[in-house]
Structure formats: structure tokens, C-alpha cells
Amino acid sequence: MTEMIHSDYEHSSGPVIPIQVPYARLSDVTPTPSNPARVTGVVAGLQLTGTVLSTDAGSSIAVLNVAPGFVGHWNVRNVLTYAAAIEDTWGAINIGDQVYYDGSATMPAGVYLSTSPLDQAGAANTLFGRVALVGGDALIAAYPKGGATASTQKCHVVQRGAGA
Questions:
Q1: pTM of whole model > 0.70?
Q2: Are 52 and 45 in contact (CB under 8 A)?
Q3: What residue segments make up the domains of the chain, in order of their start?
Q4: What's the 3-state SS for the chain?
Q5: What is the CA radius of gyration of the chain?
Q6: How far is CA 110 from CA 37, 103, 106, 144, in A?
Q7: Sign of CA dihedral 114, 53, 33, 156
Q8: Bridge-partner residues for 20, per DSSP?
Q9: What pLDDT digit, counting tens, does each position of 29-50 carry?
């Protein structure tokens, strides 16, 4: 699957905090504008996350928005746990649920977020944000999304970014 800028990309009216990050310091070294991103770090689960705003292939630099409260509309995998490096359990995704940046090789192409706090190797995933209700009461009926079988759901997520 070729990655692309989402046509239904949405964001909050809150601040944008742009930072430049070399591609080599990102978990996905081929960043795409509007996708979630994670900056590599020393401690698993505590890395900086944000949204790719732009890329410069010539200098291999991505600009990320790391503002807390930024809202994106992303694909979220409903995996909860892994066993023997494969997805083992799944659950419904609901408003307020934590969403993690999950770099597991088992994730479908172009999907970076899941509801699992651990990746397929048992290392901590980085908290990316929480599922949010954006669009009013008409969308409440869409939740919970997914269930006890593997699925990928389109959800609004309020990113944690550089927040505490």
C-alpha cells in the first residue's frame, strides 16, 4: 500500500509546534505528511511523537507538529496484546481510549497506531494520544469501533505530542 496524505485530514485550532527531525531519527524513515511519527529515543515508550507536517527529501528532514492537543484522523489497529510476535487479542476502540505508536512488523502497511501498550517484542509502545469524539453527537453511535477480532478503525486522536 502506498502511503499518501489523508484527504480527510483534520486538526484542532490549537497551536502548532513545529520541529525539524532527520529521517534517520524517526521510527519510520520514509515519513509522509499527515502521518503519525515517533522520534527514536533511548527509553522505549518515552519517545517524542507528533504529526508529519512536511518533508524535504533533499535534506532528509521532516517537520513534525509536536503540539499537545493536535487532533488527527488516523487508522488505529485494535490489537491489545501480542503472543509469540503475532497479534493475540483485540478489543473495541472507544472514546477516551489510549492510543500508542506501534512499530510492530505485524501492523498493516500505513498503520502506525494501535491500542496495545506493548509491541510484538514486548517493548513499551509510546503513548501517542487518546481517541476523541470530533464531529458532534451524530458520531457517538459509531463507538465503540471494532471488537474482539482484528480490525483497523478510522478514529480521531488527540495527540499527546510534547505534553506531559
A1: yes
A2: no
A3: 18-65, 71-159
A4: CCCCCCCCCCCCCCCCCEEEEEHHHECCCCCCCCCEEEECCCCCCCCCEEEEEEEECCCCEEEEECCCCCEEEEEEECEEEEECCEEEEECCECCCCEEEECCCCCCCCCCCEECCCECCCCCECEEEEEEECCCCHHHHHHCCECCCCCCEEEEEEEECCCCC
A5: 15
A6: 11, 11, 11, 22
A7: positive
A8: 63
A9: 999 999 999 999 999 999 999 9
State pLDDT tens for residues 7-24: 554 444 457 999 999 999
CA distances from residue 49 to 26, 82, 127, 128, 135 in whole angstroms, order as listed: 9, 22, 8, 6, 24
Q: Which three cell numbers mark 51?
A: 504529526
Q: At 140, phi and psi to the nearest 5?
A: -55, -40
Q: Which residues of the chain have pLDDT under 50?
A: 1-2, 4, 9-13
